[in-house]
Fold:
Amino acid sequence: MRAMMDRTVWHQINRALYLTFCVMFSTVLVFGSAQSAGEKFVIAQVQYGGGGDWYGDQTTISNWLKILRVRTDIEAAEERVIVKLTDRNLYQYPMLYIVGHGNIRFSKEEIEALRFYLTHGGFLFVNDDYGLDESFRREIRRVFPDQALQPIPNSHLIYHCFYDFPNGVPKIHEHDGEPAQGLGLFHEGRMVVYYVYSSDIGDGLEDPKVHPKDTPQVRELAAKMAVNIAVYVLTH
Structure:
């Protein structure tokens, strides 16, 4: 019993240390500059071409940011920002979010911009809303032609940096019964792309009325995983 209590206390200390680090050092952005203390953490949703519904998950990011404000010490914004990969202000955002059900197509200029962003401190989270997989894999190979998406082991810090997910990325929204998978790409040892397939964290963060079949328990898993992703971005 005492050992269990000690582990619980140690986990709480670890969470506090991560958030202290987060508040002290904030986000490392491209060009190696730190986000100033007065700025709020923003998640930028990418507007892409190809015909897919890039605009999906319309309540996801605002709910995600609210969760961060309530559960952590992260100074988070209130609403999502929409960006194109060729926008000049892309580099002020520590994290990009891509979602959709259909086709993605990046221009040559967008490929180059995304590669530069990711190799200079940026982070991309991609949420397969069912139907995105084939085109995303094709396009990300254009960004990193010498790499392939690789499974992220359950021991990775993204699954333990605030809440513990000993089995890796949770299954949130049921589509066809496939197991949830967390995949990633790395640059100089840092994970720069995190892609969740057959999990759909974004759906679990939407307003409850959007996906009424998602139980409170499932939405809680999505909320916890979303916190972990943000904390990981802010500390790596």
Notes: The CA atoms of residues 2 and 8 lie 10 Å apart. DSSP finds six helices and seven strands in the chain. The two ends are 34 Å apart (CA to CA).
